[in-house]
Amino acid sequence: xxxxxxxxxxxxxxxxxxxxxxxxxxxxxxxxxxxxxxxxxxxxxxxxxxxxxxxxxxxxxxxxxxxxxxxxxxxxxxxxxxxxxxxxxxxxxxxxxxxxxxxxxxxxxxxxxxxxxxxxxxxxxxxxxxxxxxxxxxxxxxxxxxxxxxxxxxxxxxxxxxxxxxxxxxxxxxxxxxxxxxxxxxxxxxxxxxxxxxxxxxxxxxxxxxxxxxxxxxxxxxxxxxxxxxxxxxxxxxxxxxxxxxxxxxxxxxxxxxxxxxxxxxxxxxxxxxxxxxxxxxxxxxxxxxxxxxxxxxxxxxxxxxxxxxxxxxxxxxxxxxxxxxxxxxxxxxxxxxxxxxxxxxxxxxxxxxxxxxxxxxxxxxxxxxxxxxxxxxxxxxxxxxxxxxxxxxxxxxxxxxxxxxxxxxxxxxxxxxxxxxxxxxxxxxxxxxxxxxxxxxxxxxxxxxxxxxxxxx
Amino acid sequence: xxxxxxxxxxxxxxxxxxxxxxxxxxxxxxxxxxxxxxxxxxxxxxxxxxxxxxxxxxxxxxxxxxxxxxxxxxxxxxxxxxxxxxxxxxxxxxxxxxxxxxxxxxxxxxxxxxxxxxxxxxxxxxxxxxxxxxxxxxxxxxxxxxxxxxxxxxxxxxxxxxxxxxxxxxxxxxxxxxxxxxxxxxxxxxxxxxxxxxxxxxxxxxxxxxxxxxxxxxxxxxxxxxxxxxxxxx
Lengths: 458, 234
Hints:
The structure holds two protein chains of two kinds. By secondary structure, chain A is mainly alpha-helical. Helix content of chain A is 74%, strand content 0%. Chain A contains 15 helices and no strands. In chain A, helix 6 runs parallel beside helix 9. The longest helix of chain A has 36 residues, at 177-212. Chain A starts with 9 loop residues before the first helix and ends in a 23-residue tail after the last helix. By secondary structure, chain B is mostly helical. In chain B, 50% of the residues lie in helices and 3% in strands. Chain B is built from eleven helices and four strands, in the order ααββαααααββαααα. In chain B, the strands form two sheets. Chain B has a two-stranded antiparallel ribbon. In chain B, helix 2 packs across helix 5 and helix 9 (194-202) crosses helix 11. At the A-B interface, helix 1, helix 2, helix 6, helix 7 and helix 8 of A face helix 1, helix 2, strand 1 and strand 2 of B.
């Protein structure tokens, strides 16, 4: 039981970088949690806007590293050939990390673009583009030279390609705040509520094929349906960011209706994954990987779908827009949909790459439950703080800073919950190191067909 | 039963259809934005202010049009709420205005930069945002009403200088209205003489070392006017 192609091992280094950066992201999260409690003791060196930019940018960087690692793992197998170029993949990793480090260092020196989520200064944007083109070239050539290619692979590659394309509207300079915001959401919204769902769907399909033993044709058919619903709702759902930025009023109706439909894609994913797991006859030994996979499908519905719906309607959003209610939705949405799918593929890939069957150890179970219970409690803390803020500040007209003082106890709750979450992530990282480094591929198998039965003999 | 090719057709067809609708709406939106946002009022100063706002990542703590960091106050209507005098003093030394409170970085902005930022906020406040931010609908009527001169008319002998509402009441209160950062002005005339008040507001640190009250750099006539009004609050 091991990986099929030597080149799949490059993903180990992407995964390693990803989870270490996740750890660093959590550190900056704590800095902000304490600042919200009134202990902004690091303000002089790491003011809140620095901590926030680092926290959110690290999220994007580690998730992208996770997606890239997943692509380097999945695409050779789906294409049934070695990766086009292994050295290019390493060059791409190192340069990507270098750009990330320079950007993060700059944030500590007031060097940034100051546009929420897209704080990376313009010159570094160009390097990101070159880097991502390298990645797309490498994986694209692998697909191009492949004897055949699967739907799962196409959807995954399509998601990554579109994500790169949608990065470009974020690189236009605007003098006008409304236009700036309008096109910034083309990147941010169409990534996380659009093409990233393609990446997630592709990874989920791959894991379900491997772990449940259900026939590939069935899984991939429903994958099309789900990503179809994603775009059907998500593209016009961008309108829920256009309610109050100085854009026409019709966005209230369009964004409201299509934003309200967005949870359907996540509901579809949850039902799809749970049904496949229930129907699948395979008894795959890596139960932890299945737990993360199903956990991802369920938590993405709760976080991205349900909690998104909670404040997407314009009559609700009028009051919640720009409050901690958004942070409540944001945390569980990114965790459920994107962090968990990356941690899921890592949990699946590590035993195969290293040849060590450490799955289902108490450490793995603990990391899943501690992280998930922790982030659920965090979400609850944000929800209570956010709703309190809405009523005191927005509805009763109390002063901003006075309301923030009322919220201090909820941030104590947040920090406690975050500690449980951080413990789970720490266990995940420890477990990752316990697996050790990848080993050489020993067993050479004939290039098999892409049937569902391959899952029984991974 | 749905076949895989039908599922693919649904995905590809739906994506193209909704992308096309989205692009069409974008064209229409771009046509309407100049009118809705009063682009004609976007002076060079407003544009410089916007880029200053971005350069210092103000959005990393504040929200503007509801977008930002949720750590510091919403700035969409800040011009209307605070007025240019208060904002000018605040931006020169943010922490002086809110001692011991949540901190804002001192950006050492030049006078013309402060003017640009204020111009930007003024323009933002005038955009038609489809009703955002909503007026507090559960607020007690008094707190929601704009600060007026009537509340303290009975006790004050001198007329109320405009600066009391536009600057001082950001921190201090009169007749239950205003901020709670500094002590209330109510009855200050029975605690301090006019000369003591004038000396204090002229150089707060000299009179009471360690006080949180910032030196506002008041001119002599303004100082006299303020002290005369405050001394009348008994």
